[in-house]
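Hello again, I could really use a second opinion on something today. I've been staring at a protein lately and its backbone has me curious. You're getting the sequence in one-letter code plus the fold written as tokens. I'd be grateful if you could look everything over and explain what you see. No rush at all, and the record is pasted right below:
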Amino acid sequence: MNLLEVRGLKVSYGGINAVKGIDLEIRAGELVALIGANGAGKSTTLRALAGLERPAGGTVHYQGHSITRQPTHQLVRKGLVLVPEGRGIFGRLTVEENLHMGAYCRDDAKGIKADLQRVYARFPRLQERNHQAAGTLSGGEQQMLAIGRALMSRPRLLLLDEPSMGLAPLMVQKIFETIRAIAAEGVTILLVEQNAKLALETSHRGYVLESGLITLHDEARALLSNQKVRHAYLGE
């Protein structure tokens, strides 16, 4: 059974059709990449799935139920969580306050405390800086914080938007090790990533989005060997 099923999704900004009627599906436990050039509509797609953009058409089903126009806070309660492009951390709050914000919809104090320790175990640097203002962290540390905050909500489906953007190579490696580990623990992931090669090497399947339309979808290994993909997105 598909955890997420999207049919004919359209998103418009004023008179601009950013997403023009796409279909995609994700099975529980999958890690799926959505790749494409800048301006193709990738981030818009994730924002629409997370309830931050109102679809102009189409349907979105999650866990077998329509969520097409449900607000973001309801989707978070259902386990659908976005880590946005640019991280979106609360700069004036401390690291620990940011993490607690990720659990705002929960009331199980013991579980929240246990999950906080799990985030710190995953990202020891965050524990070292837990009383530091989040806005003073490095870019990589802020990305760790954004992912950790999302994990505090106990997501079933995690939407990751450009997690490696602006990061040094060693930090990119650390972030992708974390993504693989989260997926191995059973969290389903839809990944938008500028580094198409790394995204496909990490994923089970992939979709290619061009000018608001899905033009290819296949197993990730097949897309890595596809000549069109290699030429357009892998720099070959």
In short: The domain at 30-50+71-233 is CATH 3.40.50.300 (Rossmann fold). The first strand starts at residue 2 and ends at 13. The chain has one domain: 30-50+71-233. The mean pLDDT is 96.
